[in-house]
Amino acid sequence: MNERNTKQKNLILNAIKSSHIHPTAEEVYECVVGELPNVSLTTVYRNLNKLSEQGVIKRILIPNQPDRFERNPTKHYHICCERCGAFEDIHEPNYNLDLDGFECKESGYLILNHEIIFKGLCPECRKQIRI
Ligand SMILES: [Zn+2]
Ligand SMILES: [Zn+2]
Asked: pLDDT tens digits for 46-56?
C-alpha cells in the first residue's frame, strides 16, 4: 500500500473513530474531502468495505437506509430518531446476552447474535414538539 493510500485509510478511520453519529459513507466522504481534495466517494466506499471486512470497524445494516459505520466493538443497541434521523448508541436497555446462543425449540434455529435498532424521538425533537 502506498503512502497516499495509507493516508486515505487513516483519515477515513479517524472520521469513524471521532464520530458519534455512526456516519454513512457519504458523511465520511464529506468529513475527509477537505483534507483529501482528490478523494472520490468510490474510494471511501472501498476503504470502508475493507476496514469492515478486516473487523477494524463495524458495518450497521439498516433496512431501506444506507449502511452506517462505527468503531465501538462492544455489543450494544442503537436508536434512530423518527423525526430528524439522528442515530446513536443506546445503553438502556442493556444488551441481552441471554438471547445469543438461544436455541429456539419451535423452529430449531440457534441464535448466534442479534441487533436491535429502536425507533424513537431524540431529546432535541422531544423539546421541539413537547413530548
Ligand atoms: Zn430527533
Ligand atoms: Zn453504535
From this structure: 999 999 999 99
Which of 3.40.50.2000, 2.40.128.270, 1.10.10.10, 1.50.10.140 is the CATH number of 3-70? Answer: 1.10.10.10
Q: Which ligand is nearest to the CA of 62?
A: 2
Could you tell me the distance, in angstroms and rounded to a whole number, from the CA of residue 13 to the centre of ligand 1? 26
For the whole prediction, is pTM greater than 0.85?
A: no
Which ligand is the nearest neighbour of the Cα of 117? 2
Q: Which ligand is nearest to the CA of 82?
A: 1
Structural contact between residues 44 and 38, judged by C-beta atoms closer than 8 angstroms:
no
> Of the CATH numbers 3.30.870, 3.40.50, 3.30.1490, 3.30.1300, which one belongs to the domain with range 77-129?
3.30.1490
C-alpha 108 – ligand 2 centre gap (Å): 30
